[in-house]
Amino acid sequence: xxxxxxxxxxxxxxxxxxxxxxxxxxxxxxxxxxxxxxxxxxxxxxxxxxxxxxxxxxxxxxxxxxxxxxxxxxxxxxxxxxxxxxxxxxxxxxxxxxxxxxxxxxxxxxxxxxxxxxxxxxxxxxxxxxxxxxxxxxxxxxxxxxxxxxxxxxxxxxxxxxxxxxxxxxxxxxxxxxxxxxxxx
Length: 185
Prior knowledge:
2 domains, Rossmann fold, five-stranded parallel β-sheet, alpha/beta
């Protein structure tokens, strides 16, 4: 496994299933900028704000066409089997909720502070553990991490605009200055 951060701006994503977990996954994807379509026979949760398209019906073969990433949150093994087969044939990234062995990616437990994101995964083995580790890590972070990231982004941009390399800057010292005395330990 290799954790990566993808840009989802306007990326077409499908969520099949609209229970609590499906709705939560849709919300996370929308927050990341994805254009989320949801298909479900029954919407047991309100449709998350920002969903691009909704269809209330059963999944059908061919529904994955045109999507780069799919989340199967149906809770139905037979439907999941169909989705897994289609995703494999179409070479589409797939997360089957509560079935890490058949997933090609996992959602991580996230903590965001401005442009700083901490992500923790247990590769699907124990999502509650990942959430607990995320919470413990977040509690130890200085409160100004987002501000520090924004300042450093601007400073890096200024270095590039001068035609210089950011590799010549002692960023570690600068980061510690911006974080304050708590970060120097």
